[in-house]
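Let us practice reading a record.
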Amino acid sequence: MQLDNNRRLNRQDYKTLSLAALGGALEFYDFIIFVFFAAVIGDLFFPSTMPDWLRQVQTFGIFAAGYLARPLGGIVMAHFGDLIGRKRMFSLSILLMALPTLAIGLLPTYSSIGIAAPLLLLLMRLLQGAAIGGEVPGAWVFVAEHVPRKRIGFACGTLTAGLTAGILLGSLVATLINTLLPASSILHGGWRIPFFLGGIFGLIALYLRRWLQETPIFLEMKAHKALSQSLPLKSVLADHKKEVVVSMLMTWLLSAGIVVVILMTPTYLQKQLGIPAALTLQANSMATIALLFGCIVAGWTVDRIGSSKTFIIGSLFMGVCSGSFYYLVAQDNSLLKPMYTLVGFSIGVVGAVPYVMVRAFPSALRFTGISFSYNVSYAIFGGLTPIFVTLIMHLTPMAPAYYVLALAGIGLGLGIYLNRDLNSESAVDARLADSISGG
């Protein structure tokens, strides 16, 4: 089967992309909603005699456990995704997220079952982490192997925007519940509502995914007996070290950019600059929406001018916008909303990250290569970035700005490297075309 790589996206492509983005958004919602209710969960799942600070530390420790489970879950699912099919693992990941999320909403609290309550909560978070570790790389591979080669950037950028929309959805649901329900009602059961919603929507997304088809590339490899004959991870680490390093640096850019600008900055604005919480959260929502559009634009751009120019131009733009944002808002708070929106859009260059990663690895090892690189890097940099930035903030209040500027420098360096690396464009194009045609 030879695919037309120059055609436009058709109805089936849009259906695949829509269902993948919807499921990804709901998975991210399920994974992130925990943090919006961390204070309530801490009060309910740990002894009341425990100091408040210790309860919060242990609650966030359970939240962080989800990140630690990502590499193992992602690598295991990717292993089978490369050997028995992308679609099966793509469906498994959303099931593995929906059921624990629903279970968290049903869990008895510490007052009912004692120490078993936080232990069960920890188990559910580990399962959620394993699920998200397989979902993101699986979604990128799935859509990239369905759409025409010259539309991979747009498809992956749109999918990344969908994943990010899950964070926005979690924020909106948390805001709605805290607005409509008094604190006492939330404490006595209202906190369970977002978990019920996440679990139910996840099961609906799982049902919808049954209409998706296995990727043409995997079917071709299976038909030509071109699937990996050895352990996929062993082959990735032995033969694709350079691709792993580039993909891990790309993931650092993606994870840390979003963590600092979208997740950490509202607290920074409130504590360092004294801006009211309601105003910072409004601006944060605007920045997140701008990020969604930025991801789509970056994906559209990378299809047309290539990864090297996209990251060179996009990283310079991100550096200028982020530096200006943190400096100018500190001088004049009235600039908060427009500048935060602009820097949110500039962070959207991360929408081009999966384009580079899906092109970096051969088809037989693609799922495993991306999953290992992405999840290990995300576990390291996604977890350490908040700690590192907070420590630097003791030395300078401009710590977030300097960190994002450093990320922009990494993005610029990667763009220059991709321009010099012959495998980054022409050779990979040929390899991908061969894999699609079964060569």
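A brief commentary: Residues 156 and 354 are 6 Å apart (CA to CA).
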